[in-house]
Automatic annotation (TrEMBL):
The UniProt record lists the keyword Nucleotide-binding: no
Record's keyword annotation contains Oxidoreductase: yes
Family matches, as InterPro entries: DHFR-like_dom_sf, RibDG_C, Riboflavin_Biosynth_HTPR
GO molecular function terms listed in the Swiss-Prot or TrEMBL record: 5-amino-6-(5-phosphoribosylamino)uracil reductase activity
Segments forming domain Bacterial bifunctional deaminase-reductase C-terminal: 1-160
Coiled coil (UniProt feature): none
Name under which the protein is recorded: Unannotated protein
Organism expressing this protein natively: freshwater metagenome
Keywords: NADP, Oxidoreductase
GO aspect biological process, one term: riboflavin biosynthetic process
């Protein structure tokens, strides 16, 4: 995730203005290690997600309704799949696979248990980040701090307050052109 100095993850509708070449390179590197990417449906729409460059990498799109344009290259390539509640309608494209978990909203613990692989790359947005944190499912945070102040009312890194406090340890830090790249790992004790 990338955020401004004042915590905004969005400027004028998306995160592109906050990002830079080095940030995008790190994202590509993380994706090369991931077993699966999980991202919210709003982020997919706003950032116009396409299929990943790695042919075997799948992208799980979280949605309460499954109401997405399934004719986009992300889904027609076979890379995209839906993560939806059990009671969500059937997808408009029967070729798109689904993980179903929870009633009315996604049960994230159940959904993540159904995914294959150990490295699940969570790519936001803020609502999904908050839901995954509330479900106690975040083990590592890779965060880019952009050298910009957004001074807006757009979403922050986590869009909702957390009922629990999880402690993380700074395990890696890099700086390039004013951007800070931070990796935090979860304290398990």
């Amino acid at each position: 995730m990338v955020m401004s100095l004042d915590g905004s993850t969005v400027v004028q509708g998306n995160s592109r203005a906050l990002s830079g070449d080095a940030d995008r390179s790190i994202l590509v590197g993380l994706r090369s290690l991931a077993d699966v990417i999980v991202v919210g449906s709003s982020t997919v729409r706003i950032d116009d997600y396409g299929p990943p460059s790695r042919k075997d990498l799948r992208v799980g799109v979280v949605s309460r309704t499954g109401n997405l344009d399934l004719s986009t290259p992300l889904f027609t390539s076979g890379a995209g799949f839906l993560i939806i509640p059990e009671d969500a309608p059937e997808p408009s494209n029967p070729a798109v696979t689904c993980i179903r978990a929870g009633k009315g909203s996604v049960d994230f613990a159940s959904a993540m248990n159904q995914l294959e692989g150990k490295f699940i790359q969570l790519e936001g947005g803020p609502g999904l980040n908050a839901s995954m944190a509330q479900a106690d499912l975040i083990d590592e945070i890779n965060l880019t701090i952009s050298p910009n102040i957004a001074a807006n009312n757009e979403p922050r890194l986590l869009s909702e307050a957390l009922p629990i406090l999880n402690r993380f340890t700074l395990s890696h830090i890099l700086e390039e052109e004013g951007f800070l790249f931070l990796r935090y790992t979860r304290n398990k004790n």
